[in-house]
Design brief:
By secondary structure, this protein is α/β, with parallel strands linked by helices. It folds into three domains: 193 residues, no CATH class; 82 residues, no CATH class; 324 residues, SGNH hydrolase (Rossmann fold). The chain has 23 helices and 19 strands. Helix 2 packs antiparallel against helix 4, helix 4 crosses helix 5 and helix 15 packs antiparallel against helix 18. The longest helix is centred in the middle third of the chain and has 26 residues.
């Protein structure tokens, strides 16, 4: 036995029950470099300076035999119950006696260090492993933060190689930056699910040698019926999944179990399919009542100057209703509105068209007409569709007021309303019409199958109702999910929850009056006051992306068609404007002012104009009827707006 003298700088008083005597280690370790050993309480600390990655394995393998008989063990007699090994880039804690799982834990260290040394970012990582009751905990200490995937992949490969499920009950991996107490992230690995390093070859070999019926079915694929091919395919997948998950030494299930499992799986899949298909069916939406009883949208008298198009369904009841109302207005008044208000719910609820119209008339713009085309959730991409494709030439105005804000221009945000419109039958009919007229519409989402379907796909189409309309299902499901995640947003998702009982009347100008008054004291007792860094509508905002591309298209369209474009950043209450949102708003304003100067449209920022007047809001980011009236009056009086463009030539 070799002896390593304790050269620790700490005193006995500092270390509690620390032994200053020499600790005897096996002769087989004499070739390794140690700095010192020490005993503190019931734990023996061994400090190694050896650069070899397998150092921990060598130490444990050398000590393990002397710990198997605890009664006769020298270490146990000295009161030692635990070992803590320390290397330059690793640490390992194990209990006595040293079990095979402890040796495997040391092998994990060697394997990970070998992988980490080849990666400059991971090379400085220190690994700390603790094994207790066959539960392995790995902590990666780094100077800079690591991604989970950077550690997870080599860890999973290592655990497969050492057949971890045979030695450990659980494995937890964490990462911590040096100097911090809490981990940056942590996750647990399912040992039964990861299998072993050679699990996939075994599965393939067993399938070939133990499943002759499956081989025959594959070789005679052309002669089998679609149902037989489907059963064979699902059986193949089921057998592979059965072997990968939950079995170290897989065994072939009986034919009865396979057939029963396949039948249950198909039945459950069809049931889920039928449930999901329900989402794709036209949902019965609340139809707003036209306030003016004189207006009958079903009786549009024909007019020679105006083409009365058949109504298209764009999957949004309010939008369909507004388009029909706009058609009615143009047909009966024989001209398009002078001012068209577009945007999301902030436009729908934020600009009163009747007041704006009256104020314009009072300022000398006789006969001026205004229509509010705002709809819930309209982004820049939605407005682009409305203005450049959906509205016909006779419906185009002299001026467009785009009343909205940053959220409508955030390309990182889910665009549910756009997805609904582009998945609608009305949009598809519109695309065909534009193509027939020689107009190249914007590209649709890549969800149209262009390859001929093979027989198996035809089988799936016949069985599963959602296959042919997967886009409609996806849109409806995402919409339902998003509408129920208002805990992470203070905008569109709260509209349904804050909808006033009297907001059922759509007036002749497309406006819906909201009579709710925002009271911060009571409002935030019902709804969470979400900080800006958790608001999904502001997340990852940048002044680029698909929404700004759509905006640029609208700007260009207005320029080419002599339409005056006014973009208004609508008011927000001060309870909404925290530091995060204020910073994003400043970035948005700077970008829009730059674009306005360069592209020639008018930009008006009134986001903080009435931030302390809660009586004008219905919630922190939407106005009520009083607020909509106040904004209409404010716009008419604003000197920056070029109202003179409304005068007839």
């Amino acid at each position: 036995m070799s002896k390593i003298t304790d050269q620790s700088p700490e005193s006995d008083a500092d270390l509690g029950r620390e032994s200053a005597a020499a600790i005897a280690l096996p002769e087989s370790l004499s070739g390794l470099k140690f700095s010192h050993t020490k005993q503190k309480g019931d734990c023996l600390y061994i400090y190694s300076q050896d650069p070899e990655v397998g150092c921990a394995t060598q130490i444990l393998e050398a000590i393990a035999p002397s710990t198997q008989d605890l009664e006769g063990s020298v270490l146990f007699a000295e009161g030692i119950r635990r070992l803590k090994l320390h290397g330059k880039a690793w640490a390992l804690g194990v209990d006595l006696p040293i079990a095979p799982s402890a040796i495997v834990a040391a092998e994990v260290i060697a394997a990970l260090l070998t992988v980490f040394q080849s990666d400059p970012k991971l090379a400085q990582t220190k690994l700390k492993l603790l094994l207790q009751n066959n539960c392995l905990n790995l902590l990666c200490e780094t100077r800079t933060s690591l991604l989970q995937a950077e550690v997870a992949l080599p860890m999973l490969n290592t655990l497969r190689k050492v057949k971890a499920s045979e030695y450990f009950q659980s494995v937890t991996v964490s990462s911590r930056i040096l100097g911090q107490k809490k981990p940056s992230w942590s996750f647990e690995i399912d040992l039964l699910a990861i299998g072993t390093a050679d699990s996939n070859p075994d599965i393939q070999e067993n399938l070939v040698t133990e499943s002759p019926d499956l081989i025959a079915s594959q070789s005679e694929d052309v002669e089998l019926s679609p149902w037989q091919r489907l059963i064979g395919y699902l059986g193949d997948r089921f057998m592979a999944a059965t072997k990968i998950v939950g079995h170290t030494s897989p065994q072939m299930p009986s034919v009865t179990v396979c057939v029963a499992s396949i039948a249950i799986g198909i039945g459950a899949t069809v049931a889920i399919d039928r449930t999901l298909n329900h989402y794709a069916q036209p949902q019965e939406q609340t139809k707003l009542v036209i306030a003016d009883s004189k207006i009958n949208l079903q009786e549009n008298p024909p007019d020679k100057g105006i083409t009365n198009k058949p109504a298209l369904n764009f999957n949004i009841a309010l939008f369909n209703e507004k388009l029909a109302l706009l058609d009615w207005q143009i047909t009966n008044k024989k001209r398009s509105p002078d001012v068209l208000i577009v945007g999301s719910s902030r436009a729908l609820r934020g600009v009163e068209p009747n007041i704006l119209e009256k104020e314009l008339v009072n300022r000398g713009y006789k006969g001026a007409s205004v229509f509010n085309l705002g709809i819930d959730g309209a982004t820049a991409k939605v407005v682009n569709l409305q203005v450049t494709q959906i509205l016909s030439r006779p419906q185009l105005p002299r001026m467009i007021i785009w009343a909205d804000g940053l959220r409508a221009f955030n390309s990182s945000r889910s665009d549910i309303t756009y997805d609904e419109i582009t998945a609608s039958t009305g949009y598809k009919q519109l695309q065909e019409t534009l193509k027939n007229n020689g107009i190249n519409p914007e590209p649709q989402s890549p969800n149209i199958a262009t390859k001929p379907e093979n027989p198996l796909n035809q089988v799936f189409n016949g069985i599963f109702a959602t296959t042919a309309n997967r886009q409609e299902v996806r849109t409806s499901v995402v919409k339902g999910f998003d509408r129920n995640t208002h805990m992470l947003s203070n905008s569109e998702a709260l509209i349904a929850a804050t909808m006033p009982s009297t907001a059922t009347a759509l007036d002749s100008k497309g406006f819906v009056a909201f009579d709710v008054t925002f009271d911060p004291k009571t409002y935030f007792q019902k709804f969470p006051q979400v900080p800006g860094d958790y608001d999904l509508d502001y997340r990852n905002f940048e002044t680029t992306g698909s929404q700004f591309d759509a905006f640029a298209n609208v700007v260009d369209f207005c320029r080419r068609n002599n339409i005056e474009l006014l973009v208004v950043n609508m008011p927000l209450h001060n309870t909404y404007l925290d530091a995060i949102r204020t910073r994003y708003e400043a970035t948005f304003n700077s970008r829009m002012q730059e674009l306005a100067l360069r592209e020639g449209f008018t930009y008006l920022d009134i986001s903080q104009a009435i931030q302390n007047q809660a009586e004008l809001f219905s919630d922190p980011s939407h106005l009520n009827q009083k607020g909509a009236i106040a904004i209409a009056q404010m716009l008419v009086q604003h000197p920056k707006i070029r109202w003179q463009s409304l005068r007839k030539p």
